Amino acid sequence: MADSRPRNDTPLGANAGAADTTFVLDIGGTWTRASSWPLSAETVVTTVRTPSRTNSPEMPAGDLVEQLVDLIVALVPDQVASKVAISLGAALDHHRGVVYGSAPLWGDSTTDVPISARLHARCPHVQWVVTNDVTAMLAAYRAAHPELHTTKIAVVTVSSGIAARYDDPNSRTMPTDPAGLQGEIGHLPAVTNGLHLDCACGEFDHVAAFASGPGLRAVAEAIATRTEPDVPANHAVVLSPAAFERTFAAALDADDPFAHHVLREAVNPIADVFTYLLTTQPDIERIVMAGGVIESIGMHYHRAVLRRMRQRGVYYTSNSHPTWLDSVVVLAQSPEETSPLVGAAILASAQSGRAA
Questions:
Q1: What is the pLDDT of residue 232?
Q2: In 159-195, which ranges are E strands?
Q3: Half-sphere exposure of residue 174: CA atoms within 13 angstroms, side-chain side
Q4: pTM
Q5: Parallel, antiparallel, or unpaired for β 46-49 and 9-11?
Q6: What one-character DSSP code corresponds to residue 70?
Q7: What is the pLDDT of residue 39?
Q8: CA dihedral in degrees (311, 314, 319, 323; nearest 10)?
Q9: E strands within the chain?
Q10: Digit-coded pLDDT (tens) for 119-130
Q11: How many helices, marked H, and strands, marked E, lie in the chain?
């Protein structure tokens, strides 16, 4: 007898084309990028700051939602009358196109945002297809690596937030839970070394509170304010939000002891998540780290993650197969390899107008 229960998965369609999509947007907690589709060497990609809690921490979430809808509509050219694909950095019901929340975008707000319906109400002549940004990154990576069509892959973004996605390489679907979610690892509990930090979602000691871009700065501030004999009083890292990213990357390159101490403490929670993931799902052959933090300090971040994983397990396997982790936990080779713009267009075409 055929199974009549609803399927908790989302088709990824990594081999599908995207010819019917005419415009694409990638909306993150810090930046929004927009472009006509298809992309080419001559295509202009517009980049603007996202109206978000990350950029405007004092603004109410409701106002930020309204400003985001206004921004999306303003970025899409008037002549677009077909399909617009959007990659959104938010916890998104992959079946209904409803946003449950986004710490980088709206802080601890838990008000559901029917983003697809809101956009349709503003511009009903446009077919709006909204997908989670990490889901789009996974689709783009699949399209860039057809040789891995039978390989089980997880893509992890480390940026203003943290999340992961994996799919079934045989069915080309992405399993989801009853809420239409998968891989919100940034909001798992973090095991830490005595540090206790607030997550932007309103909870304490989540993985993203330590290992994300804002988390790195929070860890640096916390360590700088407590007395530790192995941390020098003078270091090359400027802790202000405006300068931290630049000075932290430069300090890591210069082997500044404080910067490397901060990085080790910050990445421990996400390295532990990878350890749990490979322990429970040993058939995952590749964990690909991407996102803004990886683009900035990827080699340092990767090295610190592997250091923790070798120290704490995967039980037995890390020691008996010492090169295994190097082949599984890898960095995206370029931003284009996991481009949310490309992935969003692929998903929009594959889903034939159904919000994801």
A1: 62
A2: 162-166, 173-175
A3: 30
A4: 0.89
A5: unpaired
A6: H
A7: 83
A8: -100
A9: 9-11, 21-27, 31-36, 46-49, 83-88, 91-92, 99-101, 127-132, 152-158, 162-166, 173-175, 284-290, 329-331
A10: 999 999 899 999
A11: 12, 13
Domains of the chain: 9-133+339-350 (3.30.420.40), 190-290+292-331 (3.30.420.40)
Q: What is the pLDDT of residues 136-174, one digit of tens each?
A: 999 999 999 999 999 999 999 999 899 999 998 888 888
- If DSSP codes are grouped into helix, strand and coil, which group holds residue 48? strand
CA distance 92 to 97: 6
For residue 256, give both structure tokens: 């500044």
Q: How far apart are CA 250 and CA 247, in angstroms?
A: 5
Identity of the amino acid at 111: T
Encoded tokens for 69: 């809808």
Cα–Cα distance measured from residue 19 to residue 191, given in angstroms and rounded to the nearest whole number: 45
Residue found by looking up tokens 């390989």 in the block: 151
The pLDDT tens digits for 91-122 are 999 888 889 989 889 988 888 999 999 999 99
